[in-house]
Amino acid sequence: MASAVLLFGPPLVMLSMTGPSAIRLVTSDFAVLGRGVGKVYGVSTLGSTIGAILTGFVLIPSFSVPTLLVACAVVLLLLGAVGLLLARSVLGSAAAAVGAFVAALAGTGGAPLADEVLYAGNSFYGDLKVLEVQDARVLLIDGIDNGFVDKTTFESRAPYIAAFRYLPAARPRAARALCIGLGGGSVPRTLFVKHHIATEVVEIDPDIVEIARRYFGFPAEIPVHVEDGRTFVERTTARYDLVVLDAFRSETHPAHLFTREFFAQVDEILAPSGLVAINMAGLPWGPSSAAWRSVRKTLQESFLHVRAFAGTADPAAPVRVTNLFIVASDEPLPDPATLGTDEALAALALNEIPAGPGDEHAVVVSDDYNPIDDLARGVLVGWREEMIRQVQPVLLMEGAS
Questions:
Q1: What is the model's pTM?
Q2: Rounded distance, CA 207 to CA 121, Å?
Q3: Among 21, 78, 83, 283, which is most exposed with the fewest C-beta within 10 angstroms?
Q4: Bridge partners (DSSP) listed for residue 128
């Protein structure tokens, strides 16, 4: 907050002064003050509307934020130079023009390059970076890890991926899967390559699709629908044996994909005995666990059987953020310990969190009432702080995109 005030306070105060100044310029007679005010505010409102539309739908998707800030500074300085010239202040006009030139020159330098940064860019949905550290490759979305693989084999280094072995073990006849959310592509890649399940993906950000294929070895054979997961589920006529929800907006979850109404729609596209699996980030216990517990409670309204598993089995362990793996189905869900000798399944069985103590703050999440982000606030802050500590040197750096 302090840095935002220091950076943006002075220019915003000065920009806010243009309205009264403009009114004074166009109203030489008090009798026509209302007309002058109306003209200024009419133009201001029109400009704000056009600016908001252009910024949200054209500028931000097409240019980086640093480029836009520099361009805004240059345009404002040039406008000031023209105004001063019209006011016959040649010296002031020249100073503003020189300032615009210096701002434009400074903007061409860009941020320092880092050898670890393979890709840096802005999409409509966030700041994207691909880092290579030693023998690993990481996808950062707004500074948060959304993919972590071996840079040679593209095998996932994220421990939570092992939990998805439960899906083909619990539903050995599963032949078709839908993954909502791509990231680095480890989950659909595992289902397709290792378990030979025909897999489709829904991903809202086309830039993520390109990054996954280019830097994370995501197979070209897996089709990706570039669309919001909810609209895809609403319109598809296909039926799936497995539906995986692994969608994040940086560290937060897309709230509209975690409601009672959406889970009911997911139930409609599941084949008989179909299974839905959700990966969430959170704390297994404590007040901040109310977020994932609310998701489990909401799933219980659409599915007869729901089980939840944590990334750690010890309630006393100093866990900051871990993965929560939640599965639901209208058919019974077997205990992971009964599905063979797989170590990942054995660990999953140990980490199950039964319903009961801790659920008292859980709520049913709906389109009308969705407090997921508020319930997870402590988790989100902790996760962000941890990532800043780990990758602070490269968060603001750019690379070759």
A1: 0.80
A2: 9
A3: 21
A4: 121, 141
Residue 30: predicted pLDDT: 66
CA distance 321 to 52: 36
Specify burial of residue 20 (Cβ count, 10 A radius: 0-12, 13-18, 19+): exposed
Q: Give the Cα separation of 169 and 346 in Å (integer).
A: 12
d(CA 11, CA 361): 44
Query: Is the pLDDT score of 171 beyond 90?
Result: yes
Q: Which of 329, 325, 277 shows the shortest CA–CA distance to 305?
A: 329
Average pLDDT over residues 2-19: 89
Note whether 140 and 146 are within 8 A (CB). yes
What stretch of H or E contains 275?
Answer: strand 270-282
Strand order in the sheet with 136-141: 117-123, 126-133, 136-141, 144-150
Provide the CB-side half-sphere exposure for 137 (13 A, CA).
21
At residue 194, does pLDDT exceed 60? yes
Six-digit token string for 200:
């489709």
Q: Judge whether residue 87 has pLDDT over 50.
A: yes
Question: Which of 176, 174, 175, 231 lies closest to 202, judged by CA?
Answer: 231
Residue 181 near residue 203 (C-beta atoms within 8 A): yes
Kind and range of the H or E element at 229? helix 229-235
CA–CA separation, 78 and 96 (whole Å) = 7
Residue tagged 């969430």 (tokens): 280
How high does pLDDT run on average in the chain? 87
CB 73 within 8 A of CB 103: yes
Contact by Cβ (8 Å): 107, 63: no
Q: Which residues contact 205 (CB under 8 A, 6 or more apart)?
A: 123, 124, 125, 126, 226
More confident residue, 353 or 388: 353
Q: Which residue carries 């560290």 as its tokens? A: 251
